[in-house]
Amino acid sequence: MLPSAADYWLVRFAFQRGLALIYLLAFLVAANQFRPLAGEDGLLPIEEYVEGTTARERPSLFYWVPSDRAIGLAAWTGVVLSAVALLAGPYWLPTPYAAPASMLLWLLLWGLYQSFVNAGRIFYGYGWESMLLETGFLAIFLGAGPSEPPVVVIWLLKWLLFRNMFGAGLIKIRGDDCWRDLTCLDYHYETQPIPNPLSWFAHRLPDRFHRLETLGNHVVELAVPFLYFAPQPFAAIGGVATIGFQGWLMLTGNFAFLNALTIVQSVALFSDGVLTAVLPIAAPATTAATAATPAWLSALSMLLGILVIALSIRPVANMLSESQVMNTAFDPLKLVNTYGAFGSVTTDRYQLVIEGTRATNPSEDDWQAYEHKGQPVRTDERPPQWAPYHLRLDWQLWFAAMRPQPSRRQRWLGGLLAKLFANDPATLSLLESNPFPDEPPEKIRVLRYRYRFTTAEERAETGEWWRRERVGTYVGPLSQADLQAGGIARQQLRIRR
């Protein structure tokens, strides 16, 4: 027997608190990072977004008000609204007002974050951004107070989680051969975007363990999702498996809020009966009059279900296609999207190291490195823990290092170097350290290294976590004048020739 709406009050309450926490983190990231990345004077100035698109294509409040003041106001408003949602603000209101207030609150959160995602361009071009928007849009229709949530929305959350997990499984099984011969995790922990403190230990686990966990990955992403639509306790078993899998990813990597958001989605797989059986909690006592889902909310949820079904056609077609594309939105509002990650796993870790010098004619000993918050630079530094907080510049540095030379997608790199020549405080806040606190450097270069984790013997002997080997020069030594004259562009031109 399938659960009724009355079986989901606690599920809704837990889901909303979890989603509010994700929103809170996301808006804090926007408050701290958006302006130096994509603000008025950012690495990719927001004016370029306004000039390069239309409000219909990439809707955002910042299309009409492209200013740092508006960005800051929107980010901190999002933080405050997220805190209200986290504290269950709508539940404090009298019953007739709880559901409308909840709908307005989640609508504002969704609209504000939509503005950041669409105006942030490459710095917000990650699958979990559209996933947060899709999840947040469904949350608008869940209601609040003593009334029951619409069952349709609970099932739409299950459908979202299914596409999230199953899409990730399909992109892998169709991707690199290592997913089929079960060797991808021999490399993953070392080469992932931002390793965390346990990544070294996970990498050094026995090969047999890596084979088993790769097989387990396929089971959780390709088989378990079909349990999501089964009656209890099978749906809950699928939820436990999914949460356990995401927990392992959180323990061994820094994937921003992707794993935490997936865990929040997984709450929809449980029922109040399951939650009260394992946790010391209970839903509030209600009467028949207060427990029923408001008729208007039920009607809206049915219309929402029809909309999601219609918009699911293209994402499902993509998911089932042999030429599957991962992390793609098919509508401007990102209401129903396709997901997937790590279809390809690199076997070598390449890393960009930005160095500066005060010397006019520097020797190798004159160069000093800028350190990043998440990307390794020093070989003796243990990988840090940042997730679920998102280091957006660090992620782009990882993508950039995959190429031996900068491409057009790395236009922001020129902006970054220009800011370093100016010792720009906002930009420097994105970095871990500045070796030139008093005067900016005379010259800057960007080197490309191959990094690998040390062996157990090497770490015991030296205390170091990494070994590195220089493999090339990403951007040759440039002065500020060289950069202003298009030094990076000239290097790219020579490479193309």
Annotate the secondary structure layout.
Layout: H1 9-38, H2 46-52, H3 61-64, H4 68-86, H5 95-120, H6 127-139, H7 151-173, H8 177-180, H9 188-191, H10 199-203, H11 207-223, H12 234-252, H13 258-266, H14 272-278, H15 288-291, H16 295-311, H17 313-320, E1 328-329, E2 337-338, E3 349-357, E4 368-369, E5 371-372, H18 392-401, H19 411-421, H20 425-428, E6 431-433, E7 443-453, H21 456-462, E8 466-479, H22 480-484, H23 487-496
Antiparallel strand pairs: 1-2, 3-4, 3-7, 5-6, 7-8
Helix pairs in contact: 1-4, 1-5, 1-6, 1-13, 4-5, 5-6, 6-7, 7-11, 7-16, 12-13
Would you mind describing this structure in some detail?
There is one protein chain. The protein is built from 23 helices and eight strands. It is of the alpha+beta class and 497 residues long. The longest helix is centred in the N-terminal third of the chain and has 30 residues, at 9-38. It has two domains: 5-338, no CATH class; 349-496, no CATH class. It has helices at 9-38, 46-52, 61-64, 68-86, 95-120, 127-139, 151-173, 177-180, 188-191, 199-203, 207-223, 234-252, 258-266, 272-278, 288-291, 295-311, 313-320, 392-401, 411-421, 425-428, 456-462, 480-484, 487-496, and strands at 328-329, 337-338, 349-357, 368-369, 371-372, 431-433, 443-453, 466-479.
